[in-house]
Every structure is written in C-alpha cells, then in structure tokens.
Amino acid sequence: MGANETGPIGQSVRRREDQRFLTGAGQYTDDVTMAREAYVYFLRSPHAHAKISGIDREEARTAPGVLAIYTGDDLVGVNGLPCGWLITGTDGKPMNEPPHPVLAKGKVRHVGDPVAMIVAESLHQAKDAAELIVVDYEILPAVVNGVDALKPGAPQIHDEAPGNRCYTWALGDKGAVDAAFAKAHHVSKVDIVNNRLVPNAIEPRAAVASYSRADESYTLYVTSQNPHVERLLMTAFVLGLPETKVRVIAPDVGGGFGSKIYLYAEETAMVWASKHVNRPLRWAAERSESFISDAHGRDHVTHAEMAVDKDGKFLALRVTTTANVGAYLSTFASCIPTILYATLLAGQYATPAIHCEVTAVFTNTVPVDAYRGAGRPEATYVVERVVHQVGVDLGLAQDEVRRRNFIRTFPYATPVALTYDIGNYDATLDEAMRLADVAGFPARRAEAAKRGKLRGLGYSSYIEACGLAPSNIAGALGARAGLYEAGQVRVNPTGGVTVFTGSHSHGQGHETTFAQIVAGRLGIDIGSVEVVHGDTGRIPFGMGTYGSRSLAVGGTAIVKALDKIVAKGKKIAAHLLEAAETDIEFADGKFTVAGTDRSKAFGEVALAAYVPHNYPLDKLEPGLDETAFYDPTNFTYPAGTHICEVEIDPETGQTSVVAFSACDDFGNVINPMIVEGQVHGGLAQGIGQALLEHCVYDRQSGQLLSGSLMDYALPRADDLPTFKVGTKVTPCTHNPLGAKGCGEAGAIGAPPALINAVLDALAAVGVKDIQMPASPHRVWQAIQAAKSGATVAA
Amino acid sequence: MSIPLSLSVNGKAVTADVDERTLLVEFLRHDLALTGTHVGCDTAQCGACTVLVDGRAIKSCNVLAAQVAGAKITTIEGLAGADGTLHPMQAAFKECHGLQCGFCTPGMVLGALDLVAHHPHADERTIREALEGNFCRCTGYQNIVKAVQTGAAAMAK
After folding, report:
1. Which member of A103, A133, A752, A787 lies 3.0 to 4.6 Å from A72 by CB, making a disulfide possible if both were Cys?
2. What whole-number distance in Å separates Cα of residue A293 and Cα of residue A367?
3. Could you give the CA distance from residue B67 to residue B64 in angstroms, rounded to a whole number?
4. What is the pLDDT of residue B1?
5. What is the mean pLDDT of residues A627-654?
6. B contacts of A253 (beta carbons < 8 Å)
7. Percentage of the residues of chain B whose pLDDT score is greater than 70
8. Helix H or strand E segment including A362
C-alpha cells in the first residue's frame, strides 16, 4: 500500500488530482471568472402551492445595476424540462407527465419553485432588485406527504395528473405470490418509511454561461456529473439549439451523489439569457437555496410481507410502495422507484415469487430523483428489514435466516427481471461476521448492560445492480437515452497518452484509476498518461457518472479503445520488424516477434504512426488514436454484508454506532485505497440516513422545516465510528476488467444494518418497530411507549 | 461606502479599498483571486471557507474583511513551498487519501493545523470532536482523521 507512482492495476496509487485540490488550485465552477460578467439571482416561491395572478417588476427593472428581469412568460420558445424515462402503468397507459416549466408559469408548486430571474451588475444589486418584485400569489392548500396526496379531496397539483398520480406500476407474478402466501407457514410484515434526504454535496450547484456573437455559440460551465447528457437534454428538448453550438464544461465538481446528474432550471435559463443580455452570467446556489432546489432523495412509504415455510425458507415477497416524486418529474425521477427499485427486491435470496406495486405521486415538495444508490437503498431497506423480522418471528439467528435463503447457483434469474452473473454471499457474510467479532458480542452486550446501556447487532446483506447497463433492455423498459460509455485513447507522437472519457469524476479519482488501467495495459509509466473528462468540447459523447458505472462501463470503454490501439500497433510493428502480424506479441510495453528477441518499444511504434516514413501506407492510416463505445450486456451485481453494532442510552434515547463492519464484493479492484474511500463515504451517508438526516416539510403549510445545515443533520466526524472494511472478490463475468462498481454500496447496505441493530438493542425493552432516522427523540419515545404498553408511534 | 484595508495574506502585504459589506471570503476569492477558499453554506456550518487569522482557524464567510485589518491571513494557497512541495499536513492528506472531491479540503487542512497547534498529540476522539466544524460529504472522515494524525506526527519531527 505504499506510495507508488508507477504501479499499475491493483495498487493503491496515490491520487494525481490531489496536488491541485490540496494547494487551492482546483478549478470549480464558481472559480471560473470572465470579463464583463453579470450576476444572476433567482426569486423563488415562498409558498408551497399558489396561483400567480400577477408579477409587477417595474420598480425592480429600474433599480441600480439591473440588466434584465425574466419570468416564465418571457421564455418564448423555451420548452419545459424533460424526464428521461417513460414508465408505463399497470393500466397500460404512459405515466402522467405534467409540464415542468423552467420558470414558473401561472402557478408555483413547491417552496423554492423559481419565479423570476434577475440579472444585475453585482449580486447585491440582483438581490436588492428581487425584493422590489411584487408577485401576487393566490395561496392554495398544499400537500407534501405522498400518502396524503393520494387521498380523495387532496389538493390537485397538476391538471395533467388527476388524483396527483404519476403512475401505478407493478413488477412480478402476482398470482404466484398470492398462491405462495395461501400456503405459508408464517407471514412476517413490516411497515416502513424511507425518509426523504437532501443530498448536500458540499459544493453548491453553480453555473457560468456565456454567448459568443462571433460564431453564435454558447459555453456553459456547470456543476454536472454528465456534461454531454446535460447538453443533449438542454439543446434538443428545451432550448431547440444545435448541439454543435453549445459547449458544456463540468470542471472540478465538489461532490454529486446524484444531485448533479439532472438538467436544472437555473443553468437552462442562464444559457438562454446569456444571448439576450450578451454578457457572461454567473450564479452559485446558497446552501439554503440548495435545500429548496437540488433534487431530493428517497421518500417512500412501504408495506412488505414475506411468506415463509416452517424452516424459514422464503416463499414469496409482496411489496406495496408509495413513492413521492415531488412537484415535477426530475430528469430520472420516474425510473428510480420502479426500474432501479423493484428489480432489486430479490436481494441475495432465492425467493421464488415476488410482486411489487408502486404508485408514484406528485406533492408540493422539491422534485425527488436519484441520490446515492437510487432505488437500490430503498429496495435493500425493504428486503433486509423484512428478513430481520422473519428471523425475529421464527427465533432464527440473523445470519442463519440469511444463509437458509442465499442464492448459490449462478447465473441466477430472479423473479424480478434481473440475472445475477456471479456472487458468493456466504463469503461476504462470513468475513463481515469475523470483522464484527460476532462471537464476542454477547460479552460486549453484557458489559454494556452493567453500565445501563442497550447493545444491539444488525445485519444487512445487500445486492445492487450497477454499471448501467444494456441500452436495448433499458430502452424496452422506457429509457429515453442509451446507457453506453465512450472512451478515446490518443497516443501522442512522443508516446504520451491522452485518455478522453465520457464519465466524470467529482471525487472518485478517475484521473488516477483510469491512468492505472492505461499504464498497466500499455506497460508505460503512469506519469505519461493524462485523463481528460468533463468537457463536451474535448471528450466523445458519453453518459457520465451515476449508478457506480464509471469503472465497469467507462473503464471498459477505455479498455476497448486500448485493444484497438494494440491491434493497430501490432500491424505497425509487424511492418517495422518485417514479420507477420500474427507473430507479433504485445507485453510490458514492447511489440515482440514471438520466439525472438526482436522487438519495438511502444514509443517507437507511436512515433512511426505519426512520422510514417517507413510505414505500410498502402494498408494502414497513419496516427494512433482510437475511440470505443461500450454497451454492456448486463448490469453488474456488487453485493456484501454489513454489520452494525449500536449502544443505546435508554435514559436519553441516544444511539451511538460503536462499530460498523462491511465486507463487500466489488469484483476486481484497480485501486484499493480509492475503493475503500468510496466505501467509507457511502457508509457515512447510509448511517446519516438511518441515524441523523431527515428532510421534514410542515404538513399544513408545505414549508421546508429542515432547510439549512443547522436544521438538517449531516454526519460530523464524531458521529461516526472507525469502519472495519474488507473485500471478497468474484470477478464480474461480462466485462474485461471483472469490475462491478463500489460507489453506492455503503449508502445501500448501511441503513438497514443500523436500524436492525437498534431494533435488536431495543427488543430487550419491548420495542418492536422504529423508523429512520433513529433520533434520540424517536428512540426515547419508542422506549416509553413500549414501557406503557402502547403502540409505538412511527 | 468603501473603506481602506491593509493586511498580510500568505506573507504578502495587501492594501485595498473594500465595500464595507465585503466578507473576508469574498475579499479573498474575488479581490485576491485566492479561489482555494470555498463557500459551502450560508450558516457558518460547513467550514469549507476556513482560513487562519493570526494562526487561528476561522470561518471566513462569517467575518467582514474590515474586521481583519492588520491581521496575518493564511489560506490554502500559502502552505506549500514555492517549488510545489506540500506542507506535511497537505502531504498527509494525500498519503492517507483524506480527500475525494477536494471541496472541503482546504478548510479541513487549515482546521487541522489549528488543531495540531493546540493538541499536537491528539487522539482519535479529540480529532473527531475538533473537526465538528468542518463537513465532508465524501470521505466518511476516517481517512481525514488518519491524515491529521499522520500530519501531526510529521510536523513534530
């Protein structure tokens, strides 16, 4: 694990991007400055639901420094923001897809809905002018809870979505599930709420948009995880501009976690306005603005039932979920509670029949979309909570109930549309139990009890589908985009290599990991490899970074391009060495005639490709620059077991995570240090959800109550333990790297492990249920309710 | 109304006229183009804007530029050697993988220097408590704690 600047694949090479980040030389969007730039401020709705009967901006228009003020009616020819995935309901009809205007038109539907865009010489002037705009709101009743919004008489948010329903969708064989329940020995049931979260990347969203009259082109710097997708959606669906006239640059991006995948209103309005104002425009969200405008995550209400036989074998799983999608459909909102959720309900278990019905509902809240894990944490939470309940109901140890149901034969076709290629769930469970010192737990629990504390141990054996994934399957399921990735490898005349990738790094360390792959495969020094990402003006069309796909899909695209480089290099070397192409072997940076010591170094072949004096010009083009697009044949299936140990003070309800152990199978690992860092970060977010984070709206007024970092509890350093992490490897069978993806595992596995641990601890005092987050108040209330024999409040 | 301001930033004397509303972070980022100091929130919670003022870590979003007249300011740009050699604390963050997206990192490193100045031999618990004013959303803090320990040990040599 030493610092190794030349080591290739499998080594913990220290990150090359760190030098600029550690010296303040990183270039984030808000660090970009341009001559004559003007500032943008968005006036947002203070109401959850209201009609706009008038907007008076006359006084604001003449305020000092004001250059322009735009409202929804000014954006002539600008379409609404699109949703990238069409879900077809159980009624056979497409989902209800109401317009999502860039700036509100006639109505506002959540606190934070943008109403006007003010452009001024300074930010202070823009804000001062915003205060002079008079918006005449006719306040309407609001609904923020998904279950409430489906009730008869609930306020109607969109004319296009009667009953606030976006869709009701189902997956699985209902008949088979009903039949299995009819003969079940026992049915375990859970009612669970997957709490709404605010992603809170530490860099707020920002944009700098400019227009060039010289060639009628636009340049947008933006905090994006996928600049090409951003450009495609903005130009083709919203602004009606040719893609060739818009360059989108996502420079250094300070964390994303899903929230920077989407096409947002702010940058779209700014690109449009940059031409009208003819000045570069800049905007950066304040944190309080992030809370009311960044897409939120989760927000499911679910009832789940597992039918089991007398030995604890799972017979069938039945799940009903209400998913709150917020006021509008964000870019990928529709596929999160369906395609990325219900398909994961088999978990690691050979449950023969599964049925899931999901109703997606509009509410007067910020739109909900993918947040680290995106559907898969929700599925894992359902499965692992109900599996825990089966163990409790049948008196089976938590590892035993899992072992009795693990899938052990691969490939395995689940009853919910996926085919797992490979895995070894016993291995990760065993290792997690060793890391967690499960054998020593009874003694630790007894010791805690002497101090008046309650100890609990909770398990979560998760699976996720990553490396999104076959475009043809996704298309059949409603995707309006492809899901491949692009990689370009440009060998320069002097042998240095520039790699252009369609995936984007915003903390994941691609500049190091991808360079390791290239250096390892070409047998060259890692220092001569440069990785370029995040600029539509430089990189080939790619889909960006989400769903733990960068290595499995983006890395494979680079490998495919490298294969083409080596294949062409062999042809060139064969000519130079006057040998048959079939006799040329490539290894350790050298092209060698098999069985001889005659060889040409990689650099010599590269030079010959660009200075083709002695070159087979009749058969081969000069140059050494190859591009590959890789569309995977299947998802990848990272899996593992996480074990959480908590200690609860029953006097205060305070829950401490005293230990957290995780054993994951990510397939082959390129950089163990980076992978471990991804696990740590995911665990912190998963523990954050289960213990601390909670996005709360007032059920009457629709106001966001947890609208700042003083009200919304992000995990701090002293909220978390030192994690014990390990890996087991079953290489992915269908990509050449054997890689599966690691970015989301922690956020997926941790929440049920923690809540199951809390339930294990509180079982001693009679508590049977608790919802996330397990805040001191909730835990204390649950203990008091159990003491008094009352039903525990959610 | 603009007011005259003299102070030292990263060892260099700086004089400027600033609007009285100007925050220290705005002065550093806009007037001096020291964009390594970041803004992550509006309630002085996140710590991304942490700089050293006369050796003490403070949140530069929460103080007016005018308030630090005459002070010695150190930002993240002022730590490495002229040849790019990292300060031992910066080097420790790299060695221990104590950063991912890099946005909280400048504040973390400067906060760590304040911590080490007060607790050169801090244990894990002390470090975790001392980092309460700095959010990181990427690392889960584990490698940051390790980096602070490693950096402190290197600085003690």
Report:
1. A103
2. 8
3. 5
4. 77
5. 97
6. 101
7. 100
8. strand A353-362
Q: Tens digit of pLDDT for each residue in A598-611?
A: 999 999 999 999 99
Q: For B2-43, write each residue's pLDDT tens digit.
A: 899 999 999 999 999 999 999 999 999 999 999 999 999 989
Burial grade of A7 (CB within 10 A; 0-12, 13-18, 19 or more)? middle
Distance between the two ends of chain B, CA-based, in angstroms? 49
Report pTM: 0.97
Are the Cβ atoms of A24 and B36 closer than 8 angstroms?
Answer: yes
Closest listed residue to residue A741, CA positions, set A458, A468, A353:
A468
Domains of chain A (ranges plus CATH)? 200-293 (3.30.365.10), 300-469+634-788 (3.30.365.10), 484-630 (3.30.365.10)
Residue B101 to residue A255, Cβ atoms within 8 A: yes
Q: Which of A536, A676, A343 is nearest to B96 (CA)?
A: A676
Q: How far apart are CA B134 and CA A97, in angstroms?
A: 41
Which residues 55-94 of B are in CB contact (within 8 Å) with A?
Answer: 75-77, 79-80, 84, 86, 90, 93-94
A598-604: long-range contacts at Cβ-Cβ below 8 A with a sequence spacing of 24 or more?
A600/A573, A600/A576, A602/A495, A602/A522, A602/A523, A602/A524, A602/A569, A603/A494, A603/A495, A603/A524, A604/A576
The residue behind tokens 């529709």 is: A334
- Would the CB atoms of A673 and B40 count as touching at under 8 Å? no
Q: Say which amino acid occupies B88.
A: P
CB A391 within 8 A of CB A400: yes
Give A-chain residues touching B132 at CB under 8 angstroms.
716-718
Tokens at A619, concatenated: 């058969």
Contacts of B129 in chain A (CB under 8 A): 717-718
Q: Report the pLDDT value the prediction gives residue A791, as an integer from 0 to 100.
A: 56
CA within 13 Å, CB half, A724 = 17
Letter for the amino acid at B47? G
Residue B108: what are its φ and ψ, rounded to 5°? Answer: -65, -45
The two three-digit tokens of residue A609, written as one number? 């490709």
Pairing label, strands A165-172, A66-71: unpaired
Question: Out of B48, B79, B128, whose CB is closest to A718?
Answer: B128
| All domains in chain B, ordered by first residue | 2-78 (3.10.20.30), 88-156 (1.10.150.120)
Closest CA to A653 of A453, A501, A405: A453
User: Is B145 an 8 Å CB contact of chain A?
Assistant: yes
- Encoding tokens for residue B57? 């870590």
